[in-house]
Amino acid sequence: MSVVSKKICLLGDFCVGKTSLIRRFVDGQFSDQYLSTVGVKISRKVVLLPEGEHNVELLIWDIEGHTSFRNVARSYLQGAKAAIIVADVKRQDTILNVEKHLDLFFTVNPQGWILVAFNKSDLLNPSQLETLLMQYPFEQAQIVDTYITSAKTGEAVDEMFQCIAEKLA
Amino acid sequence: MASSKQNQGSAEAKLKRNGQNGGTPPTVPDPWNQDEAFDFWSDVGNREENFDQVPPSEQSTGSKFSGGHPAQDDKLAGVLEDLQELLSQKPSPSQTQPPPTMTEQDKARSLSPTLDLTQKIHKFQPGLDEDEVELPPSRISPESASPPEIASVAESVPPADSASPEPPIASAHPTTSPEAAKTPPPIDLAAIASFLSSRKGEKATTQQQDPVQSFTPDVTPSQPRGEGETLIAFPQKDEPDVKAENILPFQGKTPPREKVIPFQQKPPEEENLPSSEPETPTPETLVSPDLEPEQETLSPAEAASRLDTLLDAVFPLTEESPEDHPATPPPDPAREDQKEDRENQSSETVATSASPWANPFPTPPPPPPRKTVEEHKPSAPASQNGANSGARNGSRNGSDQNGRQKPTGTVRSGTKPFLRSQAKKKEDPLKSFRDLLLSPTPPPPPVEEEEDNLLDTPDLLLEASLEQLQGWAQERQATAAEREADLSPLVEDLEAELTPPMASVEEIEEITPPVRNREELTPPMAPVEEVEEITSPVGNREELTPPMAPVEEVEEITSPVGEQETVAEPPTVSHQEVVLEDELEPQIQTEPVPEQVMPPETISEVVSAPSEALDPPEMSSPSSPKAEEVVEAIQQQLERINQSDRQGDRKEELNEADFAQVRQLIGQLETKLSSLENQVYEPTEVINPLVPLMVQLLKMKVGVSQEAMTELLVPIIDDIIQQRVTQDQVAMSQALAQVLPLAIEQEIQRSPRAIARAIAPEIAAALQEQNKLERDAIPEALGPAMGRAIKAQIELERDAMVDALYPVVGNTISKYMGELVASINEKVDQTLSLSGVQRKIKARIQGVSEAELILQEASPVKVQAIFLIHKASGLVIAEMQPHGEQRLESNMIAGMLTAIRSFVNDCIAESGQIAELNEIEYGNSRIILEVAGYCYLAVAVEGNPSTAVVKHLRRTLGEITQKHGQLIEQYDGDRAGMPDSVTQALEQLEQKLQKSGQQKSPSALLTLLVILLIVVVLPWSYFQVRGFLDRRLESQIESALTDLENASYSQLTPTVNGKRVILSGRVPLEQVKADAEKMVAGINSNLEVDNQIIVVQIPPDPANVANTVAVVASLLNRSNNVNLTAGYQPGTVILRGNFNNPEDYKLIVESFDQIPGIETVNTAQLLPEFLRERVFFEMGSSRVPFGSLSNARVNQIRNFLAEYPEIGLRIIGHSDSAGPAQSNQELAMERAKNVQSVLLSQGLDPERLAINGTAEPPPEVETNDSADRSRVVRFELMPAPSASSLPAP
């Protein structure tokens, strides 16, 4: 079974848990220590697709949350077939900034797919999360879905990446 | 179908027309506008409806003529004939042409007819041709004057009728040959007379048939006769025809038509008879239905009188027609058959045709007669007369042609009419329009045919114009028909009842169609002429007027609008007149008409007619005056007729017979005239009916001769378009807009280069404009192609691209050059640097060749991995990793490299510059990055690959991007989608890299070695040679020195160094040393001799020395004055003694000193006599006894010291042994001191006097001796402390 490589990016404000999500997904680990990502960090994981002719090798570009280097981020986004935009459920500004990241990504990759991840779901109770989801619906043609994730508990992390992999297959 | 549309459109069109055209005739140009044309059509349609009613009038007139009043018909026919003749004169030439081929008639027509048409058209517009010029006045007159003319005609009509019928015939003749026109009249008169007679007889239903038959036979003869002959024959025929015509169709029109028919038939036979034949029959059939309404219109006035005749005519027609129809229905075959029949059975066919013709003619009679006349003419005259015979000729010819055309047209119309009117209308929308336009009058169907032809012809505009013209004519006809219909309600009944009315209708149709037919057929010239006449009412009127005048004033009145109208109207008038005049009149009319026609046609009449026409119009302006004028005109015509013999007779007859009827007719004429006037004054109404005809004409023209039309229109088209553009830019643009894309497309297909040339100059400007409008549009459009374009360009012409890109690539090139220079430097450094020397030493030490060391030093390039990476996404497109190595995470590496590249490009490189990350070094390895297009190559190598490696990289990358650029650009992560050739290219690259690392040549080192060898060996060998030479020289010198060996203590050795010779050795004598030097110089005087030979002396034997001392002492003692003893110790002689002579001291000392082996001579105790004697002291006393030291003694001492400055004097005091030693010592010292003081007092040098005291007795005094001897002071010689202190003497 052949493997097709796909580049995806994780976008989002700093300290929303992008790196943690990737680590949870790739290594199955989680650490409370905060290490700011500088520039970009690339991870790789092959996602097995239950159906289809090939598996997908996800090359996950963990792009630093400090977006002062817009241009850099822009060039990092080139060639990405999809992006996961991460927001911190505890920080409303990060949720509001999702739109900016959406625009940034779509300007670089008009045909790309987007997944929105509300991360750190373990910090809120389900009802709050529900209201959050209701409060910030992201409904565009190219936004596949919105996930409530937790890198700490692993909630919906694998599902999210699986979803994106299937979308790109 | 079409009719309804047309009607609808027509209504609107009418409105538009009214609005636009108003009363101005110039509206005519509007026909070009489709809208307007449609309007016209619509009008026509409306009118058609009216025309349906109206045409009947025409038809009725025709029918009337045909059946009712042959005489009137004849008259009218004469007028018509005149018109025809006038027309025919022009057409005649065309006629000649038409005959060539009936089927081809269209084509044939195209040439001459087209010319005529064009001329006429020109005439219509400006009146270009001379003929036209003549015509114009008449035209002008007809327009305005036509009504008055009509009036006058009306007045003269009765006679005119009688005369008119004749003239047509005559005209026919003249038309055949314009010149003959004058002559023909008589013939015509005769013929007319005969016709009249025949008609009188024919007036009955039978008459129609008879005429037809008569026509047929005439026709037949005409055919055999040939064209020229036919002329005459035709007139004759015409006469019978005229009769028939008079009976059947119109007054004079019918006869000419009949004549025409035969001619037509003949020509058709000759040319394409079939068409004419089928037409003729068909028209009949068609006419029959159409005729009914037409008859209705016609009938009202005339019907009553002519019903019978009409009926008769119709019946035969109908009878014949049905017969014909079956045959005709297939127009072509029928026509052909008919042709054949005509040819073979000319009489029969003619009869059949004649009958139909008779019918159709009635309505169109005017044209047909002309046609007939023309045809007659054309057959012969046409041939005789050149196409461009005199203007009049031309006109006549044209008329003839028209006549022919008409008949043919009629024939066709007859055949087609049904089909056309019904089916064809439906078929072609345009046709339908035209049909509608035409249909109002019957013509539409033929028009359709024409239209078809026109349609076939590309020029739509022309068609449109033609259609418009046709429409106008139809409208006119329609109006006339309407009027007639109004006038003749009875006709309707008749029409309804009788089939003949159908014929009339057919005729009407035919009239319009005839034009078409004419157009279609070669004879079309005639129709064209008619059309022209119609279009240019003036011209037509002129032409018509002359005939009209003879025939009927009504025609003139109507004529202004159009021939058909005029024809239709006149027929009615004529019919009316005929009705009044009855049988006699027709004959008279027929006869006189030709006569009149004949003369008028000759210029005078024509001119007069127009003049009349001119006058009348003014008169006619008021309807009532018009009527009066008409009456007057008729009277005038009558008068004219009267003037002519026949006419006069006939007129008289007519006048006598039915003046009342005439007046009634006149009244009707007046009404019609008034309407016509209205039409005239409302140019739109007049013009409108012409429009369809125009269209028809144009169509015909186009159909006949596209080239001619094009030639005609070409010079104007631009003006037309320009004017239209000025009028309504939007409409024009809209009209053209639809065609433009297609047109451009076509043109591009046809001649792309031309288009390119046309567009090229503005492309830049266009791009700029587009840029202004939408800045991104062009880049977006060109963007996708740019990459490929550049690639293609690179493949095509690499150098050009290099030049173009040089400024941009400058960085890269400079970098490349830098690398090159660096590599060169590196090589130089390596070969000449310390490392190189070290390597050499190392090689010597290890006993290994230097090249081997170099290979060892050149660290082998080991490729770890090669990645082809998608630039944007950082995904690996292809990779190559050597087997057996630890495989790298290609995608991770590629991703990070990509990120690093992006980071460098975006953050580190200066803004505005494109800088690439070329290499990443780590330890002894490095990652070389080469970027191209949408991908870049990353090569991880161990070692330091040479610049050649980088070259390989670039070349490989270039090849890959050129071959698979598109795939790479669209790479989406599926490596399987990439061709294997990419991976293979990477593998090849890897191999090249491996090899390239082992290519270092030791040549530089070898050269260095050589240099080193040379540098070392040369001096060495030099020194070797030189040493050899030196050795040889040394041996020579050595051998020479052997002579001195006996005299030397050791061997004398020479050392040669170049020219310098060093001699070494020991010799006992200086002499030997000098001899050795002399010997070297004796060998080579140039040699520089460094004589280092040492002279060595041997010590003497002590015994010998002692002997010698003894000998010397003895020898010295021999003298008296010397008494000494010599003691000898090795090297030293001690002398004791005394001598007398101080001078001997020197001798003694030297004697001993010269003895070999004696180095020092001690002379302390060798004293002269005066020092020998001691100074004795008293015991214990230190006082020098007086006398012991006499002055003499002192002097001697003094002289002695003075003589030997090197000698000092030591004064030694002694004491006796008595007493303490201490005191003795002191005493001794005291004593010496005193002596010294004495000596000093004598002036001796203190320094040379030393004192010494000892308690010891003097050496030779023994203890036993007297103490006296011990108390002394004695003297000893001592070396003087300094030679300087010599006492002065």
Automatic annotation (TrEMBL), chain A:
Coiled-coil intervals: none
Annotated protein name in UniProt: GTP-binding protein
Source organism of this protein record: Spirulina subsalsa FACHB-351
SMART domains: RAB, RAS, RHO
CDD domains referenced in this protein's UniProt entry, alphabetically: Rab
Cross-referenced PANTHER family: RAS-RELATED PROTEIN RAB (PTHR47977)
Record PROSITE patterns: RAB
Keywords for the protein's UniProt record, in alphabetical order: GTP-binding, Nucleotide-binding
One Pfam family it belongs to: Ras
Superkingdom: Bacteria
Classification via NCBIfam families: small_GTP
SUPFAM superfamilies: P-loop containing nucleoside triphosphate hydrolases (SSF52540)
From TrEMBL, chain B:
Region of interest (Disordered), residue spans: 1-458, 497-578, 1246-1270
Skewed-composition ranges (Basic and acidic residues): 333-345, 424-434
Record field: compositional bias (Pro residues): 359-370
Pfam family, one: OmpA
Coiled coil: 627-679
Listed Polar residues bias regions: 1-10, 204-223, 346-356, 381-413
Location of the OmpA-like domain: 1164-1283
Biased composition (Low complexity): 136-156, 273-289
Membrane spanning stretches: 1004-1023
Keyword Magnesium part of the UniProt annotation: no
Sorted UniProt keywords: Coiled coil, Membrane, Transmembrane, Transmembrane helix
InterPro entries hit by this protein: Bact_OuterMem_StrucFunc, BON_dom, OmpA-like, OmpA-like_sf
BON domain location: 1029-1097
Name of the protein: OmpA family protein
